[in-house]
């Protein structure tokens, strides 16, 4: 839901407060990270978000929106296919080396 929130912010306003336990926390580094079990830390993040300068909110949101545009499903799929191709090539090379050694 964090990425959906960022993607929906066409006005580039708002602040994302994000649990450190989410996968999105690694990508959305301009969110305010919190341990959701730490009530004081969460309350402080809410205070910071409410008092944050509008220009800083916009800059953070722009960075996060750029991150989700660049790191989308197409990039993920392309990386996965590239890794699978690398594994296949390595397996073929290893098999060729093994067969060449056994023939000698």
Please tally the helical runs, counting DSSP H or I stretches of 4 or more residues. Answer: 5
Biggest sheet strand line-up: 1-2
Q: Give the percentage of residues in beta strands.
A: 5-15%
Radius of gyration (Å) = 22 Å
Under CATH, the topology of the largest domain can be stated as Rossmann fold
The low-confidence parts are none
Largest sheet: 2 strands, parallel
The structural class is: mainly alpha
What is the CATH homologous superfamily assignment of the largest domain?
A: Glycogen Phosphorylase B
The number of E-state strands comes to 2
Roughly what percent helix?
A: 55-70%
Distance between the termini: 58 Å
Give the helices and strands as they follow along the chain. HEHEHHH
CATH architecture of the largest domain: 3-Layer(aba) Sandwich
What is the level 1 CATH name of the largest domain? Answer: Alpha Beta
Q: Domains counted in the coordinates: how many? A: 2
Mean pLDDT: 90
